[in-house]
Specification:
Largest sheet: none
Oligomer: single chain
Distance between the termini: 35 Å
CATH class: Mainly Alpha
Structural class: mainly alpha
Strand content: under 5%
Order of helices and strands: HHHHH
Helix content: over 70%
Length: 103
């Protein structure tokens, strides 16, 4: 169920229906946290998706916190060279570049 909620949230994000996407990904995160735990890579993927949605909604501070948490989980569980680790680093760098900071 959580994967389907995640995918639907991504579809809604892609069609700029962000207010509809946010509660779906939050629900998916609750399911993953309860079933897999807060340090599981799948939970981190959900945080990454929520961060992306919040960034698109103009909430960069919330997005940054989620990206950083996802990054910590990926580095610990998957390692620094995993594509997910690199991907969330790229999102974090883009967010910081948009703010005029070097990441």
């Amino acid at each position: 169920m959580a994967i389907r909620l995640n995918n639907l949230a991504l579809l809604l994000q892609a069609t700029n229906r962000l207010a509809e996407a946010e509660p779906l990904i939050r629900r998916a995160l609750m399911i993953w946290e309860k079933s897999l735990g807060p340090d599981h890579p799948q939970f981190a993927i959900g945080q990454w998706v929520l961060g992306s949605i919040l960034k698109d909604m103009g909430r960069p501070d919330e997005a940054e916190a989620l990206y950083r948490r996802a990054l910590a989980i990926f580095e610990t569980s998957l390692g620094p060279d995993h594509p997910h680790t690199a991907g969330v680093l790229a999102y974090l760098a883009a967010l910081e570049a948009a703010r005029g900071r070097q990441g």
